[in-house]
Design goal:
Largest sheet: 3 strands, antiparallel
Order of helices and strands: HHHHEEHEH
Radius of gyration: 21 Å
Strand content: 5-15%
């Protein structure tokens, strides 16, 4: 998952720079809390109609995050019995667990899910940016109409 898209979404909804949004979000421990805050920011922004779409994407974020963590933060071993696979090493340390054997297609499948999630986040980011820009333009036009000549 591309966390930069999450920072961008948060920054747009809060009216901050991406740097400030990133500093805020990075100081929050836990993905669920980060996603709660981003969700609330969307709901209270001019892009509030996008909150439902974020809720849908959020489920995929959680799934992909857990799977990515399992892949990235696990040690792997190769074994001659499984020449075209990798075995998660945690099964070695926990003999009661069944070894998890991953084939190339498992990694490719996860990569494709991550790419689809990133595409959905990028699309949502553009939609939120458009909504906020439209709201700013409407506010600016109202302000111009209210100014005395």
């Amino acid at each position: 998952m591309n966390e930069l898209e999450l920072y961008s979404i948060f920054s747009m909804t809060m009216g901050n720079t991406t740097y400030v949004a990133r500093q805020i979000i990075e100081r929050i421990n836990g993905l669920k809390t980060r996603l709660d805050i981003i969700s609330d920011a969307i709901k209270s922004s001019p892009a509030q109609k996008r909150a439902g779409k974020f809720a849908e994407i959020r489920q995929d974020i959680s799934k992909c995050s857990n799977a990515r963590a399992a892949i990235a933060h696990t040690c792997w071993i190769a074994h001659p019995k499984y020449p075209d696979s990798l075995i998660r090493i945690d099964a070695v340390h926990h003999p009661d667990k069944k070894p998890l054997i991953y084939k190339k297609r498992d990694f490719v499948e996860m990569e494709n899910k991550m790419k689809n999630l990133n595409a959905a986040l990028t699309e949502l980011s553009f939609e939120i940016g458009f909504d906020i820009q439209q709201a700013r333009e409407r506010a600016s036009q109202r302000e111009l109409r209210l100014r005395p000549d």
